[in-house]
Amino acid sequence: MKDLLCILGSVILLTNCSNSNTSTIEKESNQLDSLKQKFVPILNGVWVLTDYINSIEQTKSPVKSSNKLRGVVTMIIDETINSDSIDVGSSWNNHEGYNFITYFQTGQNNNSLKTNIPDYEEISSFYELGYETINNQTSLVLYHYDKTKKLIDKKSFTKVANKQSDNDAAWGLQYIVNKKLFAGNYLLIDSTNSFTKVSLKSDGSFSGHSDFKTYYVFTDFMGGPETSLDEIDFNFYTKNSKGFAFKIVSDTTYLYSTIGDEETGEPEQLDKIQYKLVRQ
Predict the structure, then answer these.
(1) What is the pLDDT of residue 260?
(2) Is the dihedral of CA 23, 27, 33, 34 positive or negative?
(3) pLDDT by residue (tens digit) across 41-59?
(4) Of 82, 103, 154, 184, which is most buried, counting CB atoms within 10 Å of its CB?
(5) How far apart are CA 257 and CA 241, in angstroms?
(6) How far is CA 32 from the centre of its chain?
(7) Using an 8 Å Cβ cutoff, are 242 and 251 in contact?
(8) pLDDT tens profile 188-221
(9) Where are the domains of the chain?
(10) Taken in order 161, 162, 166, 167, is the CA torsion positive or negative?
């Protein structure tokens, strides 16, 4: 009889442990599902550093705004998620591709999640990805904390598109620069004062001119010699590529030829105005 009671007690104990483990697993699964339902619809999209967008609007100059491009400057998040995390593609310093993981684990507040982004200067510091909504406008926010969980700084990101059209990590930044500085309808006036109606789009396409089909604005200044000139290239990456320096003054963009060669140490300078783009 005593042995039977021991066996029954063991069965009850094992059953309770099994139920407890099942309950814990179900609870964790429910928490994961809840966090996914909350965050995935918000996170999805192409995001660009808000400070840079604001700066570009003011300066009209990628060179003058380039000091804003430090660390993560774009984020690409789609609907592909793992069981407990989501992969985030990004551009680091607007110069190289970078990936990090955002975990479906609540961070320092209910609107943030933990990430694996390292602090290369202080190993004990950490980053979280969350969101903030102000005046019905939702931004993603990259929070930076020290080891005591004190907020060091934070970066806000603005959604510029739902999806991107290629695999370039800097696509979103390029898209928003095009949109803020160049997208629109113009009169293209050449050095003889002949003019043509042209249209430039945010995707980098150019229509209305027989020679120019695409345009590319340079925004990455880390890979070569320092420059003080903003530059744009038409038909970039083709044998018919044609580059100019540019200045935007009010509703007119001036396209210049240049003299000098910074590769050889001779500062590049503006030469003659080759075209004017007058916004219509």
Answers:
(1) 85
(2) positive
(3) 999 999 999 999 999 999 9
(4) 103
(5) 14
(6) 26
(7) no
(8) 999 999 999 999 999 999 999 999 999 999 999 9
(9) 45-177, 182-279
(10) positive
Going across the sheet that includes 195-200, the strands are 206-207, 195-200, 184-190, 266-279, 252-261, 242-249, 230-234, 215-217
102-138: pLDDT as tens digits: 999 999 999 999 999 999 999 999 999 999 999 999 9
What is the token pair recorded at 47? 């995001």
CATH code for the structural domain at 45-177: 2.40.128
Token pair for 259: 């003299």
CA 243/CA 239 separation, integer angstroms: 12
Amino acid at 29: S
Amino acid, res. 156: S
| Residue closest to 148 by CA, chosen among 124, 181, 127 | 124
Residue 45 tokens, joined = 């999209």
| CA–CA gap between residue 260 and residue 41 (Å, rounded) | 50
